[in-house]
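seq:
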Amino acid sequence: MKIDHVAIYVNDLYAARNFFMKYFDAVSNDEYFNAKTNFRSFFLSFDGGARLEIMNKPQIAQNSNALTELGYAHIALSVGSKDKVDKITNSLKSDGFDIISCPRITGDGYYESSVLGFENNIIEITV
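struct:
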């Protein structure tokens, strides 16, 4: 068994798509739009086969946006090398995103950083 994809509702569908395309080389499909429900989505594909569905439906309620709450916690993206972790983290910082934790080796042995990405979603960047 494998996870086919993970999905997340966002306020700004195009900004979320551009975030993943710019920093993580995601490839997007064409926009899906259901005029009856006003639902829009994109599937983003990453090297290695992972996919993320980003979705928008205006009537979806906002969550508290607390950094630690039950449910979705973060997305971890493996970028292949320590150098890429460093470069992407620096690029995000230069573009004004808040870095939660700078690149480091964690207690469980990962080399990673964490950034507060689009719409205050936590993105872990790891080897």
